[in-house]
Design a protein that fits this description.
- The protein has 13 helices and eight strands.
- The protein is an alpha/beta fold.
- The chain has a domain at 4-111: Rossmann fold (3-Layer(aba) Sandwich).
- Strand 1 (4-7), helix 1 (13-18) and strand 2 form a beta-alpha-beta unit.
- Helix 2 (43-53) packs parallel to helix 3, helix 4 (98-111) crosses helix 10 (223-230) and helix 5 (120-139) runs antiparallel to helix 6 (145-153).
- The structure holds iron/sulfur cluster.
- Iron/sulfur cluster binds at residues 42, 44-45, 69-70, 72-73, 188, 263, 266, 268.
- Iron/sulfur cluster binds next to helix 2.
Length: 312
């Protein structure tokens, strides 16, 4: 029986599958949750903390990304550990050292009992190549923004089952979309499950999702090569590294504007002014808190942003 390993942010799924386990990204259930946690800063970490501590989701162990892309997870992860779930704390290197990252991945592997299925990373690499094609097709108007987002975001754990995920990808249908405004969505993903569909219905076509793009562009065949690639995971690196990457990707995609999604009580909010002064595009910053459909006031702001783009 494969062990189910919950992850709180990007932990290479290649490594977890290679250890004979199945990853489960706890964030993928949160946009559909009706939970209003009592003791919270960021709703994402507070909700998974409550769900895991109260055993509302059944898992065998937890890997918390405690250093790198999310700082709230460090405390909420400890609360889950105190509830009795075997928990490992994983840290990305701020300076991008692949040697350090390799030692971190070795510890993850030890926590999971060592490598048992060394062929899995190669299989995942093939799926990620399809993910990159999907991303390109959306930018060319061949796939809807929402369908593409739902597939790309699932690359964090590949739906906990490679065959099921391969099947899901094969069902995605091409279409012809008239792109009105080419939008890059940067920051953490929105907590609203309908966000991409709503934005597209209002004339804002998201053709780049920053974080999900990180999920598909990194891979590797073994611990060493996975470390060499994931050490360039932009969210865990200094802002100037991330900004240079964004400048290149946004130019390549010929974007008209940026939506910067921020989350209430998330430290990434503090990056907004730096992103604004370094990314030379019209930018709308929005903030979400609890999960649910996109609120009316955000829809109004999206409409106003589209009008501003069309006037410029
Ligand atoms: S929104 Fe920010 S604080 Fe919340 S889980 Fe994501 S990175 Fe962490």
């Amino acid at each position: 029986m494969q062990k189910k390993i919950a992850i709180t942010a990007l932990v290479p799924p290649e490594l977890i599958y290679a250890c004979g386990c199945k990853p489960f990204d706890v964030n993928n259930v949160i946009p559909f949750s009706k939970k209003y946690p009592r003791n919270k800063l960021c709703a994402w970490t507070a909700i998974w903390q409550e769900m895991l501590s109260k055993r509302e989701i059944k898992i065998d162990s937890l890997i918390v990304v405690a250093g790198g892309d999310c700082h709230n997870a460090l405390v909420d992860g400890q609360k889950v550990a105190m509830s009795g779930i075997p928990t490992h704390f994983f840290f990305y290197p701020f300076d991008g050292s692949s040697e350090y990252l390799e030692s971190q991945f070795q510890k993850v592997s030890d926590f999971l009992g060592g490598i048992k299925a060394p062929e899995k990373p190669e299989e995942i690499m093939e799926l990620k190549k399809i993910g990159l094609q999907i991303d390109k097709k959306r930018a060319a108007g061949k796939l809807t923004s929402g369908d593409t987002f739902r597939i790309l975001i699932s690359f964090s754990d590949l739906a906990s089952d490679l065959d099921t995920f391969r099947e899901t990808i094969s069902l995605i249908r091409e279409t012809d979309i008239k792109i009105n405004n080419r939008i890059a969505l940067i920051g953490v993903p929105p907590i609203y499950p309908d966000f991409h569909d709503v934005a597209q219905s209002l004339g804002l076509d998201v053709i780049f999702d920053e974080l999900p793009f990180e999920f598909i562009r990194h891979s590797g065949r073994d611990i060493q090569t996975i470390a060499r690639d994931y050490c360039n995971y932009t969210f865990a690196r200094p802002l100037d590294f991330r900004i240079k990457f964004l400048q290149k990707e946004l130019k390549k995609r010929n974007v008209d504007g940026i939506i910067h999604y921020t989350q209430f009580s998330c430290h990434h909010m503090l990056e907004d002014d730096i992103l604004r002064s370094n990314l030379d595009y019209p930018m709308l910053t929005i903030q979400g808190d609890l999960p649910g459909n996109t609120p009316e006031q955000i829809k109004l702001r999206l409409e106003a942003f589209r009008e501003a783009l069309e006037r410029s």
